[in-house]
Amino acid sequence: MIHHVTPLLPSPALSGRTGADVWLKMEALQPSGSFKLRGMGNACRKAVERGARRLLTSSGGNAGLAVAMAARQLRVPVTVVVPRRTDARMRELIAEQGATVEVHGEVWDDAHAHALELASAPDVALIHPFDHPDVWEGHATLVDEVLPRVVPDAVVVAVGGGGLLAGVVQGLRAHGLDEVPVIAAETVGAASFAAAVRAGRPVTLPSIDSIALTLGARTVCERAVELARQHPILPWQCTDEAALDACELFLDDHRVLVEPACGAALAAVGAAPHTTEGVVLVVVCGGAGVTADRLRSWRTG
Ligand SMILES: *Cc1c(COP(=O)(O)O)cnc(C)c1O
């Protein structure tokens, strides 16, 4: 197993403020700083079992870091193609894991197109950051860890490309929890899931306008939209400012620093439907792309 079993903590602070019995699945404490190690770890392991001798991914964010860590554990070489927009700190974190970091293009789409070209070489497996059954299967393990102790009346997750959402919903349904509503939190400027649910199919946002870059997939995966037809999934949005407020409050409440992407999920607690009573589980998705300094600079713009 490449990921760690993370703590499941009660939140007296969030419970007191909202009236719900709030529990936190602390994915911020994965070695990679986010839940991504679950899905990427599973996808990398399976790719190697199927014969891959080299791994490749196109994410300059938490998925790239998780793939680099997984490859290291599996003892296979890995190339992480990142766009120029990926900051130096994240590139360093990825390189520290022994990965080859290739910078290509301005935004993720350019980096991904380059990765697709490299992926045609033999023995190479391209690991997608959110759109693959092995990724969803890995993310679903977080639900398996929660249920022996806590059965939620509602679950809150942040949504970028929809991989986490797909995994969590898959996990709930595997345990017969077909009726448990899932709140799908996004920032207003990165609401590609809400747009997809409205349209009934994935749509591509013209641009992303949010500090929550981790939520900035312009198009969500088809699977997330398909699940929204089978399971009660409620899109919910907040401003960047509300996500930042939630990050700061969480830092004071639990002394853990998380990305604004995760702040969007935290902001939903007490504000979104189904989050003011009963047992509410929040997936504290975390994120390695934040520092105390960064949090301050987002605040001042
Ligand atoms: C990747 C990520 C998300 C979004 O996950 P998707 O599977 O792309 O929907 C949210 N928060 C953090 C910290 C992430 O790394």
In N-to-C order, the SSE pattern is EHEHEHEHEHEHEHEHHEHHEH
CATH topology of the largest domain: Rossmann fold
The tally of beta strands, per DSSP, is 10
Query: Quick one: overall form?
Result: globular
The main sheet comes to: 6 strands, mixed
Give average pLDDT, whole number.
96
Low-confidence residue ranges: none
Distance N to C terminus: 40 Å
What's the CATH architecture of the largest domain? Answer: 3-Layer(aba) Sandwich
What structural class do you assign from the helix and strand content?
alpha/beta
What count of helical segments does DSSP give?
Answer: 12
Quaternary state reads single chain
What is the CATH domain class of the largest domain? Alpha Beta
- Supply the number of structural domains: 2
Query: Which strand order do you get reading across the main beta sheet?
Result: 1-2-10-7-8-9
Provide the β-strand percentage band: 15-25%
Helical content (DSSP H or I, runs of 4+): 40-55%
**Rounded Rg:** 18 Å
Bound molecules: pyridoxal-5'-phosphate
Describe the structure.
This protein is α/β, with parallel strands linked by helices. The chain has 2 domains: 8-35 and 133-300, Rossmann fold, CATH 3.40.50; 36-127, Rossmann fold (3-Layer(aba) Sandwich), CATH 3.40.50. The protein is built from 12 helices and 10 strands. The strands form 2 sheets. Strands 1-2-10-7-8-9 form a 6-stranded mixed beta sheet, sandwiched between helices. A 4-stranded parallel beta sheet has the order 5-4-3-6. The longest helix is centred in the last third of the chain and has 15 residues, at 240-254. It starts with 7 loop residues before the first strand and ends with a helix. The structure holds pyridoxal-5'-phosphate (PLP). Pyridoxal-5'-phosphate (PLP) binds at residues 34, 36, 62-63, 130, 158-165, 214-215, 217, 259, 261-262, 285-287. Pyridoxal-5'-phosphate binds next to helix 3, helix 7 and helix 11.
